[in-house]
Amino acid sequence: MMPKFYKKRPIVIQAVQWTGDNQTEMLKFCERCFIKGEKNNLIVVTLEGDMTASEGDYIIRGIQGEFYPCKPDIFELTYETVV
Fold it and tell me: For the chain, how many structural domains are there in total?
């Protein structure tokens, strides 16, 4: 079977960028996130298990309410601001 081409459907998501200094904002947005350790690591509980978000990563709320981190370069290539 030959591979097919696919494109993402145009969906709108919500996201907040983790700066390491926006704990209050992040915890209000992501009820499945928590801060751990002395370096303010952000742990995101995802459908695939716990993931650590680095400073600069975006935390995305998906279309089914799930949360997951996304590296800034991938985020900027995949998403654009909706007005």
Answer: 1
Q: What is the pLDDT of residue 49?
A: 94
Would you say residue 46 lies in a domain?
A: yes
Q: What is the pTM of this model?
A: 0.85
> 32-59, pLDDT tens digit by residue?
888 876 677 899 999 999 999 999 999 9
Residue 18: CB partners within 8 Å, gap ≥ 6? 26, 42, 53, 54, 55, 56, 57, 58, 59, 69
The strands making up 67-70's β-sheet, listed across from edge to edge, are 14-17, 58-61, 67-70
Residue with tokens 């709320």: 61
Q: State both tokens at 10.
A: 């145009």
Range of the domain at 67: 14-78
